[in-house]
Amino acid sequence: MVTLPFLDFPQALSPAECETIVALAARTPLEPATIWGGAADHVDTRTRQAERCYWARDAETEWIHARLDALFAEAAARFETEVDPVFEPIQFVRYGVGAHFQTWHSDAGADRYDERRLSASVELSRPDDHDGGVLEIAPAIGLARTLPQGGARLFRSRMIHRVTPVTRGTRHALVAWTGKRRA
From which residue to which does any coiled coil extend (predicted)? Predict the structure, then answer.
């Protein structure tokens, strides 16, 4: 039996909840997605091309954060680690045709090892809304996309991963991280 480096929660959100999140993003200004490099975040479309916005925990997004908190708690138990509730802003990402995060990367470098122990990517689009835009996590490269709209994939933040280019349509995703808050 092959052990995959991630956990899937196929019904993390309902289709209606996904549409609510996409509608919230439509009211929020999106900006080019950045990458971390050197001393600051910056735009590099050769590495990552997408649009995104961040949402802190507030009255409008509390339900999303609470749902992610529950997913992270379950994943933490299965990965045998401890995490706090989500304390960083969550990220909405829109990948249009040609958009990607081509470079293999982790969400937690040496400076954020405890702060980011687990990562989550929630599919907000229906599978037939786009081609490409596949979240690949090493070493499970090349697996077919299996999550429906509302499905979440959780993995250790130090796992290297990428998103392949979208070749048709638009992929919307919700991305979040948690771990242990610095004292």
Answer: none
